[in-house]
Amino acid sequence: MPRSHHFHLDHGDHSITVNVGPGRTGPIEVLVNGKVIAYQREHDVGTTVLDGELPEEPVRPFRVLLHQPRLVPSSPRCTLELGGAEQPMPERSVV
Hints:
By secondary structure, the protein is mostly beta strands. The chain has strands spanning 5-11, 14-20, 28-32, 35-40, 46-54, 60-68, 77-82, 85-88. Helices cover 0% and strands 56% of the residues.
């Protein structure tokens, strides 16, 4: 049975979470400080990009790259791109 995946990273005073729905094509939502700021109804294999902003003055744009492997059914990987640097987002268990 397919399961959901949850990725989380704290950046400064902000909490960034990515929730990926079950299966290889489920919905994706990006949350900053617990508030949904980006949503995509479904994704495909390969890389899906969602854009967001950190609520600072001035706002700081960022990107979330979700990579779903094409050939081998395995867990997705998630990367935060902020200020020109990429940082892997660790997957976390949600009970």
